[in-house]
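[retry 2/3] Helix-turn-helix domain-containing protein: previous attempt timed out, resubmitting with same input.
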Amino acid sequence: MGERDDPGTIGRRVQRLRVERGLTQRQLAEPVYTPAYISTLESGRVRPSDEALRHLSDRLGVAFDELATGRSARLVTELRLRLTEAQRTLAVGEAEAAAEQYAELLVEAETHGLAAEQAAALLGLGECAVETGELVAGREYFERAEACLAGAPLPARVPALRGRAVAHYLAGELRYAVYLLESALDELNRGGLHDPDALLLLYASVIGPYMDMGAHARAAQAAEFALALAPQSGDPALVARMHRSVARTLVAEGRLAEADASLAKAAELYRGLQIRTELANCHWMRGYVYAQDGQLERAEAELRKALGMLTAKRAALYSSQVAVELADVLHRRDKSDEAAALLHGVLDDLSPERGAVHSAAAHRLLGIIAEDARRTEDAEEHYVRALSLLERAGAAGDLADLCRLLGDLLRRTGRVEAALDAYRTGLGHRTAPGTTTLGPAPAQPPL
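[retry 2/3] Helix-turn-helix domain-containing protein: success.
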């Protein structure tokens, strides 16, 4: 049962409903209470007991919760049903349409003082903003959602916290993103809060930042944990649709508690569907492994599959990393023109403030392609741009490699002192992956 409104608000509501129904204070009061008590209650000078509210709700023909809070149980359930519909819209990749649904629902949740539903709408708006590349707006929505859930247990706050971390990551703030995700993982595992959905969401989200920071061992371990935690739900979209249909039927029959249970299951499955989309990263990881092993044809097939999945479901920020990996494989397979076109597409979709690490990776590979084609000035320009972006983002592992490339280019063109400066810069950033780049690894789940 939610918190009640203040006595004055309840009193005005009782008076309005009594007048609408054509009842006198005596008719409303009898046989248990007096007209004087009703008069005192309607003026807001007394806080009615549960027994008094139940008597009044029976006489007025409304639900107890509606009299105490001003909102009916049906209203709350129907709002949750519409939130699930918006979640479905987002899960199938229609971010702009979902944002319109969430914005309308946020207004209604705020009007009725429904904190949990406000948080759900804000979380949805944040996800929509990240998908469309509006990272600052997305981060603000996630922060507001966290504020609505300030008193809730950590697992309930994880989706909003993870959203904020992803917004920082896509803006190039790798260390802070990893800090947020690892801190939450550590708190969950050390505190015994082994919520599978929360852990899966965090492990799936930390893979990208780990890879960009050169922490390949941690990325591989996070992927292993994510796959171990992934629920075996068959076709989550199909099951979720079933639960939504059941919920509609139950609402129509007035069986609101059962409808809420079905909606909770549908919402959980749609979250899983979004995670499965993110786990297109598994194809990317497999392609990356094949590329490292020299199996370029298999790598190209896996990376094209990952890119197709991400492009169909996610915004350019999510697909750009895979596009760069695919371009590298294409270049190594002597398809440099196609690789360059793919990379320029990445740069058209990103900016230094939005996807700095991925922009840097595109410039780095364009530099290598230009150098192979003996276009030295173009190569140097791309390397310098990449270096500036990586320094801003703090991607130490990539910086060391880039400084080596730039130093080699400068040395070959006779600029020895400049080459030495580039090498020294690279040595300053050289770290063993997953050690000095990051702090201690977070506690592990009991798998």
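[retry 2/3] Helix-turn-helix domain-containing protein: Confidence is low (pLDDT under 50) at residues 431-437.
[retry 2/3] clearing retry counter.
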